[in-house]
Design goal:
single chain; 196 residues; alpha+beta; two-stranded antiparallel ribbon; 6 helices; 46% helix; 26% strand; globular
Length: 196
């Protein structure tokens, strides 16, 4: 479909044809993303483990969001007592998990609020927490949070946290989402520092 659309786009200079072809290609990309997400459940998860600094990874995640937050009244912070926490894991997949948690937290606070990303060492484990002061979750939503296709958003596939759960499990870690003490939610990840 993509190839045929590209051929039509090259052959037809008409502006409306160009716009239609661009829309078709964008839809193809969206559908490819959904298929890729579904494949997490259809085949074993392959990890490319390497040693890396979790604090640096979290800093990258926070810094990559800053340009999007300039117009919003959202306070996004990284808090860590350690300057470096080295872990042996799949860096790209853990980045995907953290990005998903940040995306959910930022969505929960809307255009104003606070999101805090924290990391610490804990007896051979690394603990990463993402806390927001957003609208929180109902008890039913917390029970179903990791179910494929479950979402509290009006957009999205409902696969983000299901995939995050699979990635964390493949690393022999745990993921939990609990109410924050005052308001909002805390998502917690716990991984062995060194494995394999």
């Amino acid at each position: 479909i993509r190839l045929r659309t590209q051929m039509i786009q090259r052959a037809q200079p008409d502006n409306s044809v160009q716009q239609s072809c661009t829309m078709v290609q964008e839809e193809i990309e969206r559908l490819n993303g959904i298929v890729e997400q579904l494949l997490y459940f259809a085949r074993p998860l392959k990890l490319n483990r390497e040693n890396f600094d979790v604090v640096a990874l979290l800093r990258e995640c926070v810094e990559s969001r800053m340009p999007l937050l300039r117009t919003a009244a959202i306070d996004l912070r990284l808090q860590t007592a350690d300057t470096e926490i080295v872990i042996r894991a799949d860096r790209l997949k853990l980045r995907q998990v953290v990005d998903n948690l940040l995306s959910n937290a930022l969505d929960a606070v809307g255009t104003a609020g606070k999101v805090e990303l924290r990391a610490r060492s804990d007896n051979g484990f690394v603990v990463v927490e993402c806390q927001d002061n957003g609208y929180g979750l109902t008890e039913e939503a917390r029970r179903r949070l990791f179910d494929p296709f479950f979402t509290t958003r009006s957009v999205g596939t409902g696969l983000g946290l299901s995939i995050a759960y699979e990635i964390v499990r493949a690393h022999e870690g745990t993921i939990a989402v609990t109410p924050a003490e005052s308001k909002g939610t805390v998502a917690s990840l716990r991984f062995p520092v060194s494995h394999g």
